[in-house]
Amino acid sequence: MTLTPRRFALLAATAAAGLAAAAALAGCAPSATPAASPSHSASASATAKPSDVPLPVVTPTTPPTPVGLTCDQVLTADQLYAFNPNFGPDPDYAPKDGSLEKKITDWQGVACAYLNQTSGDVIQIAVAKPPSDVMESLKNTAITTAKPVPTYGTPPTVEGYFKPGDAGQVQIFRGPYWIVAESTSFFEPGDAAPLMQSVMGNVPAS
Fold first, then answer.
1. Is residue 153 within 8 Å of 200, Cβ to Cβ?
2. d(C-alpha 132, C-alpha 154), whole Å
3. CA 116 – CA 42 distance, rounded (Å)
């Protein structure tokens, strides 16, 4: 197996996660009080810009496959309520031009958004089955702009990445599926983890 830069980074991240878990089990990991997450006002979240993640330059020669999912199937109302009862579907949502979510809809995927009625934060979740000949380019772009997150799933079956910013951004690759999630309420990878587990439980594995 060729050890590409992406594979090397994934292996390193997986090994680091394993060492951290082993240290915690051995009682070596110091306990710490979690820092309080910074709050976002409704006006701040409304003006926050999405993470600046470039799209791959590869031009597909194969067609995308319709994802065949609705927003209610990507994330159920019960799962959304369990995550945070303040969130509900955003009726005015449309993915922005140039965003990963817009590319997903261009590739016959589905893009959904959920609005926090208290803070005004919006969570975007989008799923596609991109053209098969651009998947490697999408993964290579993700590894150069974000950090691998093995807790989203075990590589190479699942490749997960997180990029912090004005809006934290998740990218997950599993089988033919590309999952993107983005929100000003995602400050670190763990903030999105419960939602990502729900989404991956709803999206077919292959």
1. yes
2. 21
3. 9
Q: Please, how many CA atoms are within 13 Å of residue 7, restricted to the half-sphere of its CB?
A: 6
Neighbouring-strand partners of residue 170: 162, 181
In whole angstroms, what is the distance from residue 132 CA to residue 49 CA? 29
Q: What secondary structure, in 3-state letters, does the chain show?
A: CCCCHHHHHHHHHHHHHHHHHHHHHCCCCCCCCCCCCCCCCHHHHHHCCCCCCCCCCCCCCCCCECCCCCHHHHCCHHHHHHHCCCEEECCCCCCCCCCHHHHHHHCCCEEEEEEECCCCCEEEEEEEECCHHHHHHHHHHHHHHCEECHHHCCCCCEEEEEECCCCEEEEEEECCEEEEEEECCCCCHHHHHHHHHHHHHHCCCC
- Cα dihedral across residues 55, 205, 186, 15: positive or negative: negative
User: What sign does the CA torsion over 3, 107, 180, 77 have?
Assistant: negative
Ramachandran angles phi, psi of 204, nearest 5°: -55, 150
Q: From first to last of its 206 residues, what are the pLDDT tens digits of the chain?
A: 454 555 545 544 544 444 443 333 334 343 343 444 333 333 333 333 444 555 555 688 899 999 999 999 999 999 999 999 999 999 999 999 999 999 999 999 999 999 999 999 999 999 999 999 999 999 999 999 999 999 999 988 999 999 999 999 999 999 999 999 999 999 999 999 999 999 999 999 88
